[in-house]
Design brief:
elongated; 3-stranded antiparallel β-sheet; Arc Repressor Mutant, subunit A; about 10% strand; 3 strands
Length: about 110
């Protein structure tokens, strides 16, 4: 099992910082941060907090993405003025989904 796979397995069940991951997997912190950045840029994990230390978790599963799409499509039929901001956020989610699907196709 590769180091990236070991990190992803660890993040399946919980949210952790890079220090926690490095400690549990006995990786040097610098290497662990590099692996996390790779996984984050590939869209396979998400950062939870905006402030350091970042917490990481697995990116949304296929089922979660499909649920979001279903809910979005249901809400797209009628957009009232008071719901325009929510619609913008959901459009942004669709863009992220498209990017993630494109990345997954390259693996």
């Amino acid at each position: 099992m590769t180091r990236l796979e070991r990190i992803m397995n660890l993040l399946r069940d919980r949210e952790l910082t890079s220090l926690e991951i490095a400690s549990k997997l006995e990786f040097p912190k610098g290497n662990c941060s590099s692996y996390l950045n790779t996984l984050y840029k590939d869209g396979r994990i998400e950062r939870i907090s905006d402030k350091r230390p970042f917490k990481y978790r697995m990116a949304m599963s296929s089922d979660e993405l499909l649920t979001e799409i279903y809910n979005f499509m249901g809400n797209c039929m009628v957009i009232r003025k008071d719901k325009q901001e929510e619609a913008k956020q959901k459009r942004g989610l669709i863009v992220k989904i498209k990017e993630r699907i494109t990345k997954c196709q390259t693996y």
